[in-house]
């Protein structure tokens, strides 16, 4: 088997050396930069969730938390944490090229598609840190490839493989359901609907449901908290703007120079029989875009659909002259290089701040929480967490021994709480409490509220809850998000009612 694998790799290298050179370059960049900044807010939270394994969590399925925790089994290591994200960027290149080849595209078309997947600023950003979005481009593109192979060959094995990808994708992020619905609609709206008559189609659908079901069952048993988390966004709190504005931002965030490629992926399947098998992909994009826009989704919610369109468009445009193609892709590479410091941790924070000020390339905020980021939210949320833990630990250690033994640490949000949990063990800090998302379900962990250190709390509100309060310190560091900077650390003594009794008032799902 090993010899067979080696032979396949050699054959692939001989057939498409450019694809594998691009893949190697992507690997070099991502693995070299993986540990440049510190752990991202959500990554800290995922590590803590993964260390308390469950079938699901308030705001996400279990796969990414379990993966994050697994990378930290031997101690805190930023580089190891980012390995799955780097691998997702690396594998996306040959997978995108494979769709082009499955559509009958040339070797040139294959490497153009793979290159496009590596030059999209948004796709690069999604693979910079390990979040629930990180595996989406890989899962959506992999599902597209397998369904395409099933459509073209009629072989059931591709349907079962697609089911596994779909089920695992649902265990990584519920956004997988958007592409599943979109592909289903795309198939139904085109001649590819014949796939629904395949004897293995519905068995494969059942397999996908079985793989994805545990997290959905967990959500049902807990009252579907995920819908409460996303309700504000669906209600219009995300700054998506009009559909036209949304699509314009999509073009820029996917690399504006590459826009003709994915637009060709939408149009070319309907301009002749050559790409008729790709019509369901173009229709799926239209449906997915309608869902995301209708739900006021953030721009990156649709990012995972573009590699498939790059692959289709590469077939449609592969007849471009060599000179024109070279100039076009060189310009796309230049645009990607200019945007690279905005999505990759290339520059140190002070240099990045100056670069953003000079170029005006900082992305506009997509939600209220992103307003005022000194760098970008992606980078600002990777800074200051160890400092925050040290600042809270100093307040905790300053307490008398008898008081410290029953003092709870309570944080406003899951990022602060997770930073205390991940970095605080070395300082002997107790488990952190928070009312946000999964932390709320973990409850008060035996603390009665007689003494609490509240991180980033509201002094006026706490004065009504506690018999005495004092500001014992503050959190903050350069370039962190504004709501994590110059904020108080409050010591509360004598909660007027037991903590377990008032805990429901701390709940914040968002």
Q: Could you characterize the architecture of this molecule?
A:
There is one protein chain. This protein has 510 residues and is of the alpha/beta class. The protein folds into 2 domains: 15-343, no CATH class; 385-506, no CATH class. Helices cover 59% and strands 6% of the residues. Strands 2-1-3-5-4 form a 5-stranded mixed β-sheet. Helix 3 (41-50) crosses helix 22 and helix 5 (78-102) runs antiparallel to helix 6. It is globular.
| Largest beta-sheet characterization | 5 strands, mixed
Roughly how much helix do the residues carry, as a percent range?
A: 55-70%
Overall form: globular
What fraction of residues sit in β-strands?
Answer: 5-15%
Order of strands, main sheet, comes to 2-1-3-5-4
Keywords: Cell membrane, Glycosyltransferase, Membrane, Transferase, Transmembrane, Transmembrane helix
Pfam families: PMT_2 (PF13231)
Transmembrane segments: 79-99, 111-130, 158-189, 277-295, 301-320, 327-347
Protein name: Glycosyltransferase RgtA/B/C/D-like domain-containing protein
Short description:
The protein has 510 residues and is α/β, with parallel strands linked by helices. 59% of the residues lie in helices and 6% in strands.
